[in-house]
Amino acid sequence: INQLLYAVFFPSSSSSSLSAGAGGWSPLTSDRYQWLEVDLGERTRITAVATQGRYGSSDWQTSYLLMFSDTGHNWKQYRQEDSRGFFPGNSNADSVVQYKLQQPAIARFLRLIPLDWNPSGRIGLRLETYGCPYSKAHCFDSFLLQTSSREVVSLKFKTLRNSGTLLHAEGEGGLSLSLELERGKLQLLLRQGGTSSPEPRRLASLGSLLDDQHWHHVAVERRGAHLNLTVDKHTERVQIPTESLRHEVTPTRPLQLINIHVSCCFISLVIIFLSLLLPLSLSLSQGNVTFSCTEPVSVAVTFPGPQSFLQLPGAAATAASVGFQFRTWNKAGLLLTFDLPQEGGVVWLYLSEARLRLQIHKAGRALLELSAGSALNDGQWHSVDLTSGRGRLTLAVDKEEGGVAHASPSFPVAVGRQLFFGGKRDDSQECRNPFDIFQGCMRLLTVDNQPVDLILVQQRLLGNYSQLQIDMCGIIDRCSPSRCEHGGHCSQSWTVFHCNCSDSGYSGATCHSSVYQQSCEAYKHNGNTSGHFYIDVDGSGPIKPQLVYCNMTEENTWMVIQHNNTELTRVRPSPGLNQHLIHFDYSSQEEQLSAITGQSEHCEQELSYHCRKSRLLNTPEGTPFSWWLGGPGSGRIQTYWGGAQPGSQQCACGLQGDCVDPQHYCNCDADRTEWADDSGLITHKESLPVRSLVLGDVQRPGSEAAYRVGPLRCHGDKNFWNAAFFDKETSYLHFPTFHGELSADISFLFKTTASSGVFLENLGIKDFIRIELSSSTQVLFSFDVGNGPLEVRVESDVPLNDNRWHRVRAERNVKEASLRLDELPAATQEAPADGHFHLQLNSQLFIGGTASRQKGFRGCIRSLQLNGVTLDLEERAKITPGVRPGCPGHCSSYGSLCQNQGRCVERANGFQCDCGLSAYTGVFCHTEVSAIFKSGTSVSYTFKEPYELIRNSSTLPSSIYSDMTLRGENVSLSFRTNQSPALLLYISSYYREYLALLINKHDELEVRYKLDSSRDAEVWRSRVRSLANGQLHTVSIRRLTDSVSVQVTTHSTVIIYTSDELDPDLARLAALGFTGCLSVVHFNSISPLKAALLHPDTSPVIITGPLVQSNCGSLASANPYAAENTHHLSGKDLSGKRWGESQPLVNAIRTDSALIGGLIAVVIFVLVTGLAITARFLYRRKETYRNQDVKGVKQEDSPDFPFNNQTDSQNVSDENRKEYFI
């Protein structure tokens, strides 16, 4: 029970003289070197402290430090929340401010050091401490533990040494378990072969700086198949090694302490040995056991800042002998300096790049330099000895173990009148410290081989000092435990730590935020196309990123997770076994698979069985011959097959009623000698993924079988589209309190037409967190963790109330707070210098509004995630007035992703690009449609009259047709060819009017327009030459009545158009044919090549000869004439047998293959020659051509084609038909 232990209300003995009067403690001088020390008489569990100012005065302290000690020496500063060092004090003389310590302090002595006080008064204090007496601890050198029913070891120890064995036990099989200190860290080690084993296995490592001569609590506890190692307040959970579970352990030797003073509190003290199966009891049977711990007094001094220094008097000797120990995290800093009395030089001993260096300077010139040691910024104690005499100077680190350097200077090196440690008073410019300041601890100082009494220094009886903390070492290991998340590497200096997030997949000051998207859906809406991507399903949560394939070629965006065998594989039964077991290992871990299936709208996996006299499931009433395991973990037994319902013990044909034998529910159960198969999709997410197959009927004579389990495929991200619409400023959603004490990240998307509103708010007693739209161009992230409100703002250059989606990402951690809006640079605010504070909230979390119902948000909020967990806004919105689930209207934000005249189509969750009016295809209408024509290949495209279009529009793709009343043309095409001359395009009408695009014999582009049969053609030539060079070129022609523009670029693809009523000059040219690549053919709103390649069955096209799709129109593709690689989409295997005709395509004996992951990308390169495109148009308006010269067109003859004009024109057979031939 906590009770008042000690109270100070009147002057009492302290570290400095007291003023006269009553009512509290007030030192005569108010500075930071005063303290009040309380001796509680015995070790006490201190749980709280309370302060007041001095009674009836203007004297009180506004902040202070608390120190604790068992001996009155070696003080340790108490820190709240592991880092916060100071306590806020009083604001007047009468109010009581009490603080409950988060972790009780166990000590006999308490010291309060005022930091700041009332500027209109002095330091004044009344103090109360609360707690209860702490039971005495027992010390031992060694003891032996025997069996008991408890499975825990708990003890406390303290030591001055940083290495040694704390506990050790040996058992059967040569296995041993040890708790050892190594460089101040506690290691849990497993050895095989006794203590002489050279390479023990480290099960856990915890704690740091445990050699500080303060009590530390250690516990080892078994929890199932795991061990929990606890050091002080931190616990690490480790898996019990499998080999340890196979051995019994009987302690055969005492648990030993090596050079360590240990105090063990016998409270539930039981040891856990290697097997962790046999109960063990405590028996102190040997060794020296005492009930007190004698320990040496070691007074340390801390140099915390830039004004810190220690001045000591020098020695009168003609030689120099200075020694000390130091520990620090900094790579650089001045350790010691003194003047040379005879030479007039200065000796500087300092750290640089974590090495110890010595320089002797005189008149700005270095007379001597030495260096020793390395990596001296590791936080460990390192000894330094500097000696000189008889013409020899020696610098040794760690008693020469860390390095030693010698020199023979030509001048004597002796200590002057004074030495400065850690810094130097800047009295003059020539005495200024040229090196970095030292931040760290020192102890065991000696001058002329005589120890320095630092207590006399503290009492101002020896030397001088400034801003030192004497009789304590204030070093903090900011990387133990590491605040760097997700495997980030922690490094530190004296004041800060840094996280290296390289190769972790995370970013930020503490490696908290994932750099990857959470689904393929999210990648798509960033403008990505199909490919392999890292997916982080829980964002900043504990699940690691995983590599998956995102297939964005279909209407749905599929996430594909591979396993070790997605091929069709023949079953090879093992002799003597009635069943054949196949296990599938997935590229994703268990928690990743579970998260993927949980957040996806739909998942499926193909399950196929091909059989000949190999039965599958028998009958619904009988015992199945085969089954599979699926679902979480190792999976649950499933007795249905792909395409059927769970628990039905049927296959797809049984559900559809079309099995080969009506008496059975699977084709294979008919037990026929012909090949059959049962295939289908598993879509029940609780049964996915398929983990194992057990095939039973594979041993009979004549039985043959093959199986295939496809990759796991999922689409739809329920988290990404989870949204709510707030239609009133007073409406909001509420959720449980947000817990983000030390690390919190919040991300969401919003769209609105309002200029302000609160997105999110959560309150505590004093703390709060809030994100709001503070103006139409600004987002504000504000919070308070007990040290005053902090705000982070991001200003946008464009209005945010444009009813388009905008993304907000806010993060607060122990180092900084950051806010990011869309792709703008992040705004950051550093955390307070003196530690971090827990965010303590207790109200409900309000979304879209506040508890006061003021400044509410009107608009949509989507994909709201807090620390990687998505809040289900839609479910909560269904039962909340003023809020509607979902939020339509995505094309305003994502419509720009649809390229090349693609049209954005709204969907309930997202959007889709309609490429019907585009010559391109793909998820964003970004993939060119290309082909290479061989000799004899042609595509005939027929245009129908308007009344025929109306009559047949229900059966044909509407995107193939357009209005045929032409007042102008928009023609674009790309080509790649080595042929010159060559006719690229020819369009003619019934009235012998035409448009021709060609390459003449000079490799120039030429455009001919004839819009009046009674006049000669108008000719325009480009200045661009060398177009028949095998490179990609693009031509665009735009005509509106009598205005024509032509644009030529030198990086795209080719097309050729001719007519059956050719101009005689052009007929001979067309007869040469065309050799090259054609791509992205577009005439007004019609894409004939795309129709022929992608919609040959539903488009008015006639294809003659082989037409093979190619990527020759891609800028990245190689010259298609170099080689020919053809992929036939005929459904045949390499052996020429169609699937299902006789037997399945399988690997006769499946072995390791170069095919990794089972993904096959079809890339088609085809060499094609010959092209003729014929188009006849019946112009409805003859007035499209005015009797004027075509603007920008030069009329002249064309002598570039050496062909005669004897080709006869063909007669038009049907004036109502318009034909377009490729």
TrEMBL record:
Bias kind Polar residues: ranges: 1203-1213
CDD domains named in the record: EGF_CA, FA58C, LamG
Ranges of residues in domain EGF-like: 475-512, 888-926
Domain Laminin G: 126-293, 299-473, 722-887, 931-1112
Pfam families (UniProt xref): F5_F8_type_C, Laminin_G_2
PROSITE patterns membership: EGF_3, FA58C_1, FA58C_3, FIBRINOGEN_C_2, LAM_G_DOMAIN
InterPro entries: ConA-like_dom_sf, EGF, FA58C, Fibrinogen-like_C, Fibrinogen_a/b/g_C_dom, Galactose-bd-like_sf, Laminin_G, Neurexin-related_CASP
Primary subcellular site in the record, as a coarse category: membrane
Family stated for the protein in its record: Belongs to the neurexin family.
Record protein name field: Contactin associated protein like 3
Organism: Lates calcarifer
